């Protein structure tokens, strides 16, 4: 069936003399979008040192992170109360953890939150992270294959990583941590910058062509062992070549517009010295990246597991708490400690709730963005130094097959990677296994 005359293609541009402007999403574009073009998104947020978990019968039980009850008959305690408006669009998960993580040091598991790998004194090698598997499978559909953010930026050190993302060879993907630079990279290229970018990419492309031509000649002169090493090097060069080609293609497509009210909300000069403004801005940038369909896969490490060197360690003190994050986490079982840490947990959940609100209120061609996005929020400690029973929230994905409105207590022998197998399937990237998985979590879809 042909589109009617008032149906516009979603890549329709307003053309002028030397200028083309991309249109925002309009209802009349719906008919031009193939039914199988549903934008499926994934993002993961991580925080270190666990949560407040007083005994369910103690005086401070209301500050227990996990809810009361089970299944659909559960109640949020104070820590998760800000999520009440979204209880039908999320699931609280208890019991899951990475089996390898249970064998690792208490501060070492942030690196493996999305990989499930074993890292110890014998081996500091990581494996591919869930987000990068998705980015590899779906990255050509958007201008950027993934957005990787953290408070500290860069990659950090093994077992004290400042990124959640690892490529196919287990190498850390550097995280961005400056809001203004993230904004300029994802949304800020104008016409003059675009011309300069075209020149840069053309020059880089020519250079890579020469490198590869010379490499073929050189390889023939190498021995078998050196050829294997050289092939690994060439693989990295080809990955760069693919990224350059992708960037060149996307330069021909105008970026999606940002609304005035969205720009006014951004606090691009915020940093770790004003934690909640900084966290909210990072969430807002992630929301804008999804709303403009600039990217469909993202990670955000809010805090890592470095006890003294991380910029996030001082977050509580900068927001009026007496102690650092590490000290608050250690003191959860002392008098009033559960309440103090619980109040911090709640403030963090308020920021997360703001992000869910933005995704729920924005629409794409298939409904609310939240309903087409898998959002994983959690830690690799239940309470500090305990690498079992990760506190996890899975939100969104109603249109991707998830059933919500429950607190699910999973058998503690089930590996967290079973959840990852299910999420991969929801995203259309079906795999029989991931890391040490033993199956999937079919209960999330029933």
Produce the secondary structure layout:
Layout: E1 13-16, E2 19-22, E3 41-46, E4 68-70, E5 73-75, E6 90-94, H1 99-102, H2 130-138, E7 147-150, E8 156-157, E9 160-161, H3 179-187, H4 191-219, H5 224-250, H6 260-265, H7 275-291, E10 297-301, H8 315-318, H9 325-330, H10 337-361, E11 363-364, E12 367-368, E13 373-378, E14 392-396, E15 406-409, H11 417-426
Parallel strand pairs: 3-10, 3-13, 6-15, 7-10
Antiparallel strand pairs: 1-2, 4-5, 6-14, 8-9, 11-12, 13-14
Summarize the structure.
This protein is an alpha/beta fold.
Q: Mind explaining what this structure looks like?
A:
It is a single chain. The longest helix is centred in the middle third of the chain and has 29 residues. This protein folds into three domains: 33 residues, no CATH class; 327 residues, Alkaline Phosphatase, subunit A, CATH 3.40.720; 66 residues. By secondary structure, the chain is of the alpha/beta class. It has eleven helices and 15 strands. Helices cover 33% and strands 13% of the residues. The strands form five sheets. Strands 7-10-3-13-14-6-15 form a seven-stranded mixed beta sheet, sandwiched between helices. A two-stranded antiparallel ribbon has the order 1-2. α3 runs parallel beside α7. It starts with 12 loop residues before the first strand and ends in a 20-residue tail after the last helix. A hairpin with a 2-residue loop joins β8 and β9. The N terminus is likely disordered.
